[in-house]
């Protein structure tokens, strides 16, 4: 099957070599065929493997971050001049650590709405934090706002924040004053 | 001949050739190996993101006068779309910019939008949509979405425009009535642009007549006429006639008053009509709406000016009427300083007082940009949403008619009957929900028999229940279609008609008020692709 046997006229030296010892000789066609099969196999295996790159994940994260940032920005914009923003009202009115259903419905509606009437399935948990001026160490305290459900292990969440000025006793034992609180929302896709 | 060990054998050449060929083949497949490592949508997502940022955070270009004030013939001067009211207020969109952006009769998809919002040479396909969260209607530019596309979704707010309503109670509370029985009355309105722009700096809540439409409704005019039925001639609201003689604009700059010509495009509306008064004097029954376009105010260069609007009325017979201005020395040669700085002149103030003016408010909305390329591969099976051949004896039941609109069995008609709209004003409109459908098409047969002059008949569609109209077809008197026969017309409507519960179709006779002019309509059909 090798080229040497395929009818081409052999020289005297080759005829002698062929008749004397062919062990260890590369049989050309078999070699090429085997090589091609190996290359094809490697190609099929590699090309069939889909690698989820960091380039893809950051887009999904970016979209979520943008959506959450927009939603907090919109919630912190007063509807009319001189009004409080909805986010201000929510934080000021809600007793610390109490679930606020208004935040839940408005934020959920903003991040899950499409221009079509379909709804997305983005989950979130929201809280705000402030510097506790009554604490000797000036520690940062946080208060729960609302969660659509709890974040479970393995779910990939992104974090969005917004500074909001509120007039509130923070903590409740301190006097009423304008305070800056950092609203923090963890968002993830269901 | 005895030693050929150094020769290059043919076998080697053949083998090496095979190796090289295989090597080239493998190398040529290397790019294919990397396909599995790249995202199909990464570029589309990036383009969609960029477009979303431009639309939601940029006011567009030119900035002054703003791009949305350019008319259809000037649209080529618009280099970049952007709907934010300013660079300092991202995510807060201008209502005028939004309306202009989604005006598909001015800007054509894809070219006009690609050049000004998508950018680049690659022929992307796209869909840009906006929906206010408290509405089901969405406004759309572009094509139906394919199964896979890159996208970005932005949460935004739309700044509504301010407006004022001067009604009976407001007029009485502010004594805007001249109690003498005279035939000429003048009512003035002051837009203090300097104060408007300096009192509130945040563009999100600022009233800026050069950026947003200024609307002033004056209602209940007849209520300002005090009735004297026993006088000679008797004065009654029912028989008194009101004529708007003129509307003039004065500008006060550095102590100097100047008259600014008012273009016809800014003439007021009378009695709820959807078209402006075309000339002065004009008959008015009870209401006037002043709607000043921002480009008109912008052209005045009135950033540091006070703008006075004067409305001059004639009332017959002479009676009390809406009046808050003492014109000096007389109406024909009015002196600005002596008139507007007169203690007897108390113009209505268009300002930040909520008792005078409904202040701008922000409304939540969702903006989505989807980008893809190539064919969508979607079938375009159009199904019928609505049809009316007017054959039923109850025709034109279901249509809202103005003037004599009747089922017509004479010539022309198809089937058993058509409808005939006769005399101006005359119209037939119907709201046909296209919810659940896109790719809306409208077909109908229309013909006219008109007396001539400036008469015309039009077919229009409205995305908002009849507030704004988009022209489909106009037949002018003397056109070839003005031959007392029905002519078929078919149109594919822009995306604004898609999925729209307020979609409205209308046929009307327009021009001078006449009798005897006729429009015939038959076989109206609205179709769409089910979503």
Q: What does this entry look like structurally?
A:
The complex is a heterodimer of chains A (190) and B (531). Chain A is of the alpha+beta class. Helices cover 37% and strands 22% of the residues of chain A. Chain A has helices spanning 12-20, 28-47, 54-75, 86-93, 101-112, and strands at residues 122-131, 140-147, 158-168, 177-189. Chain A has a four-stranded antiparallel beta sheet with strand order 2-1-4-3. In chain A, a hairpin with an 8-residue loop joins strand 1 (122-131) and strand 2. Chain A is elongated and about 105 Å long. The two termini of chain A are 62 Å apart. With 531 residues, chain B is α+β, with helices and mostly antiparallel strands. Chain B has three domains: 42-160 and 368-372, no CATH class; 163-349, no CATH class; 382-530, Galactose-binding domain-like (Jelly Rolls, Sandwich), CATH 2.60.120.260. In chain B, the strands form four sheets. In chain B, strands 16, 17, 18, 19, 20, 21, 22, 23 and 24 form a nine-stranded antiparallel beta sheet that branches. In chain B, strands 6, 8, 9, 11, 13 and 14 form a six-stranded mixed beta sheet that branches. In chain B, strand 8 and strand 9 (256-260) form a beta hairpin. Chains A and B meet through helix 2, helix 3 and helix 5 of A and helix 1, helix 2, strand 2, strand 4 and strand 15 of B.
Shape field of chain A: elongated
Number of helices of chain A: 5
Q: Can you count the beta strands of chain A? A: 4
Number of domains of chain B: 3
Radius of gyration of chain B: 31 Å
Low-confidence stretches of chain B: 377-381
Helix share of residues of chain A? 25-40%
Q: Which oligomerization state do the chains in this entry correspond to?
A: heterodimer
List the helices and strands of chain A in order: HHHHHEEEE
Structural class of chain A: alpha+beta
Uncertain ranges of chain A = 1-14
Helix content of chain B: 10-25%
Beta-strand content bin of chain B: 35-45%
Largest sheet of chain B: 9 strands, antiparallel
Percentage of β-strand residues of chain A: 15-25%
Please report the distance between the alpha carbons of the first and last residues of chain B.
Answer: 85 Å
- The whole-angstrom Rg of chain A is 34 Å
| Average pLDDT, all residues of chain B | 87
Instruction: Give the overall shape of chain B, derived from the CA principal axes.
Output: flat
* Helical segment count of chain B: 8
